């Protein structure tokens, strides 16, 4: 098999037919053997039924259906696990990422690159808040991590089989695939494009999921939050020491009323309590992820599939 195309699906019934038509057209142009690997991530609509129907008409279609929703990154991981192509494309089903870009990406891969990712020049159909937070997150992540994670990119890319083999050796529960692929290294390049509006339906990436995804990315590839907690501890300890010196000086060398200093005392207690809770929360995020990995539960559970 030359190319496997991994497509995570969550409530995408309005896009599947159009996606299949455009992908089939692109692959016919490339004239290579391929498979379209749909990963149904607990969809509540008719996505799975449509995929099953298409699989009876197109022998290139394979599908994996989860027992429940496990998340976008886990769905992509399952697709990589089940893929058999020498090259693997990761693309979402909402058609914001144009399937036609696969052809130049594949040509780049044939030049000797192991990873060719799509870099967004613009993003259509998205609010300013999402654009601003996404832009800020990727630039923050690039500053605090020790590896170079490309900015303005998603999971839309084509990767060599050698990359997938390494990814299978990285079974973290909280996946951040674009960071893992950057960490692996090898020859990587990109192609720029303008991202389109979503073709139909509503995005499954709520702000809650985006925040969780951002936390996964930061905690997976940076210890910077822990360093911040340590630095805050040193700074607050220094301020507290100065305040202790001032309190002792006031008691023994100044005639101050008993109630004087109540306001500053309350401010100090509140400040110290806030710093402690923030530090405990940061440490807790890392510990919770360690706990999830130690349990060694399967990343996903397959309910049905036509993959042999």
Describe this structure in words.
With 308 residues, the chain is α/β, with parallel strands linked by helices. It has two domains: 3-210 and 299-305, Spore Coat Polysaccharide Biosynthesis Protein SpsA, Chain A; 224-295. 51% of the residues lie in helices and 17% in strands. Strands 7-5-6-4-1-2-3-8 form an eight-stranded mixed beta sheet, sandwiched between helices. Helix 9 (224-253) packs antiparallel against helix 10 (262-295).
Task: Characterize this entry briefly.
The chain has helices at 16-30, 47-57, 72-82, 102-110, 128-144, 161-167, 177-184, 207-221, 224-253, 262-295, and strands at residues 3-9, 34-40, 61-66, 87-90, 115-123, 153-160, 188-195, 302-305. It is α/β, with parallel strands linked by helices and 308 residues long. Helix 9 runs antiparallel to helix 10 (262-295).
The CATH topology of the largest domain corresponds to Spore Coat Polysaccharide Biosynthesis Protein SpsA, Chain A
Number of strands: 8
CATH architecture of the largest domain: Alpha-Beta Complex
Number of domains: 2
CATH class descriptor name of the largest domain: Alpha Beta
Spans where pLDDT lies below 50 across 5 or more residues:
none
Task: Please report which band the strand proportion falls in: under 5%, 5-15%, 15-25%, 25-35%, 35-45% or over 45%.
Answer: 15-25%
| Broad shape | elongated
Q: Let me know the largest β-sheet.
A: 8 strands, mixed
Number of helices, where a helix is a run of at least 4 consecutive DSSP H or I residues? 10
Mean pLDDT: 79
Helix percent reads 40-55%
How is the largest sheet built, in terms of strand order?
7-5-6-4-1-2-3-8
Spell out the CATH superfamily of the largest domain.
Answer: Spore Coat Polysaccharide Biosynthesis Protein SpsA, Chain A
Q: Please tell me how large the radius of gyration is.
A: 25 Å
Query: What class, by secondary structure content?
Result: alpha/beta
The ordered string of helix (H) and strand (E) elements is EHEHEHEHEHEHHEHHHE
């Amino acid at each position: 098999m030359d190319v496997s195309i991994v497509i995570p699906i969550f409530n995408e019934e309005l896009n599947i037919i159009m996606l299949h038509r455009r992908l089939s057209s692109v692959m016919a142009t490339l004239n290579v053997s391929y498979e379209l690997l749909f990963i149904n991530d607990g969809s509540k609509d008719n996505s799975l039924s449509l995929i099953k129907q298409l699989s009876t008409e197109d022998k290139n279609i394979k599908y994996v259906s989860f027992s429940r929703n496990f998340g976008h990154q886990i769905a992509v991981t399952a697709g990589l696990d089940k893929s058999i192509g020498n090259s693997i494309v990761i693309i979402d089903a909402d058609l914001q990422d144009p399937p036609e870009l696969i052809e130049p990406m594949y040509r780049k891969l044939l030049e000797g690159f192991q990873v060719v990712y799509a870099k967004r020049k613009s993003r259509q159909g998205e609010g300013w808040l999402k654009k601003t937070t996404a832009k800020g997150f990727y630039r923050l992540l690039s500053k605090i991590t020790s590896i170079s994670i490309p900015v303005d990119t998603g999971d839309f890319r084509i990767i060599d089989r050698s990359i997938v083999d390494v990814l299978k050796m990285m079974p973290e529960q909280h996946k951040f695939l674009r960071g893992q692929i950057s960490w692996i290294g090898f020859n990587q390049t990109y192609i720029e494009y303008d991202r389109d509006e979503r073709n139909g339906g509503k995005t499954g990436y709520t702000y809650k999921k985006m925040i969780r995804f951002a936390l996964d990315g930061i905690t997976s590839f940076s210890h910077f939050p822990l360093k911040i907690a340590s630095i805050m501890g040193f700074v607050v300890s220094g301020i507290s020491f100065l305040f202790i010196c001032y309190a002792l000086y006031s008691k023994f060398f100044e005639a101050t009323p008993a109630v004087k200093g109540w306001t500053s005392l309350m401010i100090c207690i509140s400040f110290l309590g806030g710093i402690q809770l923030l530090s405990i929360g940061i440490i807790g995020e890392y510990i919770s992820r360690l706990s999830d990995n130690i349990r060694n539960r399967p990343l996903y559970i397959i309910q049905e599939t036509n993959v042999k």
